[in-house]
Amino acid sequence: MSAQATAVLGAPESARRAGPEGLTAYAERVFGYLPRSDQRRWADAYLRGLLTTPGRKTVRRMARTLDLPESAPQALQQFISASPWEWAPARVELARIAAGLLPDAVWTARPVLLRKRGSHSVGLRAGILPGTGRRVNCQVGIGLFLSGGGRSIPVGWRLLLDDTWCEDPERRRRARIPDAVTPRPAWALVLEMVEQFAAAGVAESAPVVLGRDFAPGVHQLASQLTWQSRDFILEVPPGQPLTPASPRGAAPSPATASPGDAAALVAARCRQTASALPGRAQLFSTAVRLLPSRPPATAVHQSHRLVAEVATAPKRPSRFWITSLRDAPPTTVRGLAHRTVLTDVAVRDVQTELGLLDFEGRSFPGWHHHMTLASAAYLYRQLRGASAPQGWPVGP
What we know:
By secondary structure, the protein is of the alpha+beta class. The chain has a domain at about 230-325. The chain is built from 14 helices and 12 strands. Strands 1, 2, 3, 4, 5, 6, 7, 8, 9, 10, 11 and 12 form a 12-stranded mixed β-sheet that branches. Helix 3 (about 35-50) crosses helix 14. It starts with a helix and ends in a 13-residue tail after the last helix.
C-alpha cells in the first residue's frame, strides 16, 4: 500500500498479506460495523472477488476465483440480495477515506445507465444508450463522487425511480422498496446525498460541481446550495435564460438589463477576462441572475457569475457555467468544472473493471449493497496506487 494510503488509513496491525495487501484491514475498516461475523466475512470475500475475478463478476465466477466451497455462490448471493444490512455507514467511511486522500476535493455527480437484459431489475426503465442512440432497458443510478488530484471516487448512490415503481404496491413489495422512497428528480437526489455526508461531518465545505445532466434543476440547485452557503459550479446549456446583474447584486442599468440566454449574453455583453487558448477557446465572465425557463420570467434575487469557455476551433462546443464563486478567476472555475471529466472516466473504469454492470439488481437493498461494494473496490484500487487507466485526464 502506498505511503499516502498508509497515512490515510493508518498502519493497522491486522493487515493480512494473503491476497491484495492490506485488504482485510481495509474491509474491516469499511464494513466492520456489520453486526454479524458472517456478514463481515462475506463482505471481505465479495470485495476480493470484485478485485481479482477476471471478466464478469458473477457470484459463481468470484467464488471460483477465490477457491471457495460449493455453497459460497449461494451465500454471496444471500449476503448481497437478502441480508438486511445498512449500507449508509460503509458509504460514510468510504467518503471519509476519500476525503483524506483528496484534501482539495469537490463533489461531482453523474447519472449512470446500467443496461439490463431481464425484466425484473428494480427501477427498470427505457433509456438511450450513450454513444449509440439505441433505446435499451436499464436502471439509472445517480452516483456522487469526491473529485480532485486527478481522481474521482464514488462514495454515494441513489436509484432513480418513477411512478411506475413507486405507485405500484406489488412492485414495491417484490423489490423491497422502503416506504420512505418516493419519485424524486436527479438533482434532488444529489442534494440529499451531499447533505447526508455533511451531517456526518464529511466534506462539509466542498463545492458542488455538476455537468449538464443536472441542468434541468439549475434553479433549485442554485437556490438550495446558496441557502446552505455551499459553493457550486453548475453547467448550463447555451440557451439557459439569464439576465445581466451587477457584480455585487445591485440592479443593472436599464440599458443592460434586457434578458437573454447564456450564449447571447456572452456574445453581446461579457467582458473578456483571460487570454485565449490559441486555436481552442476563450474565457469570458459576467454577473447574471437566473431566469425561469418558462414565463413569468422573473429573475431570482441572488446574483451569480456566468463563466463561458467559448470555442474558436471548428466543431468544438462552447461551455457555460453558473457559479457562486464570484471572485474566483475564470481559469479556476473552468479547472474545477472540468473535474466532471474525471468522474466520467471513473464511471467507465468501475463499469468495465469492477463489476458495476454485472449485477441484475432485482431488489432495492441488493442494488445498494452491490453499488457500495463496487465503490469500495474502486477506492481500494486508488489507495493501492494503481496507475491511472488509459485516457485518465490530468486535472487540477
